[in-house]
Amino acid sequence: MNLSDGVGADLTIDAGGFEQTCLDAVWSCRRGGRMVQVGLPSNPPKIPMSRVAGREITIVGSHGFSSVEDSSGLSALDHILELVKKGKLHPSKLVDREVSLEEGVQELMNMNKTSPLGIVMITHFRDGINCKL
Asked: Closest by alpha carbon to 63, among 40, 44, 86, 47?
């Protein structure tokens, strides 16, 4: 709220899927704002519906990209990939760290306890197969 001078954000996104990240997203919305729930909570969060109703916040669920094409014949994902190709979007900046396939299993197990600030990406596989960002 400090970044918005106490007004709140026009749009908040909970990509973490934890109860606290969901609550933070709702509490950070401005009056008439929109909160998008992307992360999938393992336990149902206790959403402050009096805040949602009182501030007329719209909550929208999102699970991936729409495959619907626009008038140019491109989907939302096509547009995003084009921005990456042109160097205007840098998704690698979202990656907190790279791990092996085995470490990835442990990362998934820890998701109910903690959440990294960025994405944990599995890039190291068996038999020396590695992916580069």
From this structure: 40
